[in-house]
């Protein structure tokens, strides 16, 4: 009855201010709502309970619906990406293996002088594999992966971002080793003092930095990875905490060839000669990994479109009757899928890399 009378469709935000006349004082009401929350969310939070059947101390004061959101939406139980799925980026893979994966696998060796930084920044154009690297780190280090977009913290969770951040770091610390991937981290740790910078976003930023500070000094096995397409917007405090900063550039010609082959081979569609593949790679200078994926997708529709043009019904179409994907399909696809990153932008990344990036 308390829930249905006083709550606002299950949203705790307005509960404490409920003015229903049920004869209960505010503290009792809050306690009851909290208890009801725990009871109703018990099942999905089960995995957070310790062997003693209790919720760990540090999670007890956090709102169950936020813990639930972290467990269900932000925590990825199966990131399912391996190093071998990522084309190129050898430099980044080498740095990350040494700086992150080994320490997560062997915390006993990586302490004292060898203790690793807890913050890693991946910066570069969109669609170049930053998120993939984050997932691969978690996969290779057998760590729990948490993915959150910082812009959703500032837009979707207005006024509640701080609490969600606390819940996120709380759950991560109960699921160590953990990798927290914060996409578009610039929108959270930006140096821009926008005119309307709200008190709430300032508080959110402070809370975030406090949480980072917390696991940086302890023995916790939590790594924070920030990803951004706008590194120049990060402020000094953010740079200080994200000690290793890796530039994730556009894929090289070899990496583009690898993406084409890998995607088509997975579907048993790869029949291109080396000359044709080389030619496509020449034509795709400046394409990101994500652009390449879209290009391959579009090209692989070529044989299907052609069959349908010949009057065959989609329901009668036999897979074995379809021709393989050709360079002509790629040439048509190139008209549709254009590169998404401009040369100008690349210059900005390279400049920032020279100034702040970890070059070796
Ligand atoms: P970012 O986080 O840098 O914006 P993502 O990691 O989300 O980019 O990549 C988007 C998609 O583009 C991936 O799911 C993948 O299909 C493709 N992609 C991007 N970079 C690579 C790469 N280096 N190797 C293989 N696929 C890639």
TrEMBL record:
Keyword Nucleotide-binding (UniProt): yes
Comp. bias intervals (Polar residues): 4-17
Molecular functions per Gene Ontology: ATP binding; ATP hydrolysis activity
Organism (species): Stephania yunnanensis
Domain of life: Eukaryota
UniProt keywords, alphabetically: ATP-binding, Nucleotide-binding
This protein's name: AAA+ ATPase domain-containing protein
Domain AAA+ ATPase, residue spans: 116-252
Part of the whole protein covered: 359 to 718 of 719
Keyword ATP-binding: yes
Protein family according to the UniProt entry: Belongs to the AAA ATPase family.
């Amino acid at each position: 009855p308390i829930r249905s009378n006083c709550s606002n469709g299950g949203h705790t935000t307005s509960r404490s201010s409920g003015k229903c006349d049920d004869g209960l004082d505010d503290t009792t009401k809050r306690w009851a709502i909290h208890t009801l929350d725990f009871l109703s969310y018990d099942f999905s939070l089960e995995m957070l309970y310790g062997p003693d059947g209790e919720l760990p101390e540090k999670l007890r004061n956090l709102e169950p619906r936020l813990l639930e959101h972290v467990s269900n939406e932000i925590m990825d139980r199966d990131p399912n990406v391996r190093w071998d799925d990522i084309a190129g980026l050898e430099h980044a893979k080498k740095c990350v293996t040494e700086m992150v994966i080994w320490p997560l696998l062997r915390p006993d060796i990586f302490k004292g002088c060898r203790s690793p930084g807890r913050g890693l920044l991946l910066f570069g154009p969109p669609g170049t594999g930053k998120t993939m690297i984050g997932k691969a780190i978690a996969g290779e280090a057998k760590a729990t992966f948490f993915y959150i977009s910082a812009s959703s913290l500032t837009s979707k969770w207005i006024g509640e971002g701080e609490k969600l951040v606390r819940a996120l770091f709380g759950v991560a610390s109960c699921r160590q080793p953990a990798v927290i991937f914060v996409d578009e981290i610039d929108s959270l740790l930006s140096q821009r003092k926008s005119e309307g910078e709200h008190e709430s976003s300032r508080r959110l930023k402070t809370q975030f930095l406090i949480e980072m500070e917390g696991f940086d000094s302890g023995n916790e096995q939590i790594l924070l990875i920030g990803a951004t397409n706008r590194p120049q917007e990060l402020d000094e405090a953010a740079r200080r905490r994200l000690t290793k900063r890796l530039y994730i550039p556009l894929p090289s010609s070899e990496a583009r060839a690898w993406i084409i082959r890998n995607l088509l081979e997975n579907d048993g569609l790869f029949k291109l000669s080396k000359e044709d593949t080389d030619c496509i790679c020449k034509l795709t200078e400046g394409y990101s990994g994500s652009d390449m994926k879209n290009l391959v997708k579009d090209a692989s529709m070529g044989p299907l479109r052609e069959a349908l043009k010949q009057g065959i019904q989609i329901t009668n179409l036999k897979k074995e009757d379809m021709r393989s994907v050709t360079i002509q399909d790629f040439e048509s696809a190139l008209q549709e899928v254009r590169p998404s990153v401009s040369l100008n932008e690349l210059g900005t990344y390279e400049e920032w890399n020279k100034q702040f990036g970890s070059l070796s």
